[in-house]
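The material for today's practical consists of a large collection of protein records. Read left to right, the backbone structure tokens trace the chain's path through space. An example says more than a description, so a record of this kind follows:
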Amino acid sequence: MLGIGQFLLIYFGSALTASLVHLSYNYFYHPRNPKRYIGSLGASGSLMALTTIYALTFPSSTFLIFFLIPAPAIMVVGLYAFYDIYRAASRSIGNTDSASHIGGSLFGLIYYWYKIRGGGRRNNNAAIILRRFFKFWKR
């Protein structure tokens, strides 16, 4: 379904987006934290983008929760995204970078909408810019 160029675009684009969302979140919501300028690697945001795209493309496929409980992919990924939004909104501090996951999910959602589903086919400037940007990676 995806070529090497599209996969790399999704992976590195979502990693960059996840890192920028992480930095923005820490800058605005944790202003007194001395480590707020430390970036995030973005790998978990990339995986969140890939799973979001997969869940949107194949919503009825089955994920196994704890390797036992079958559930639709769209439900599992959606609930995990809402959990990350809850953790970011409650400003809970832990080892999981919820802001990066949200950034990766947003990138995956936007990529799915404009590239796979074709939502950017209307004549608006954002769609034209995104199509020109993605045209290079279409192979």
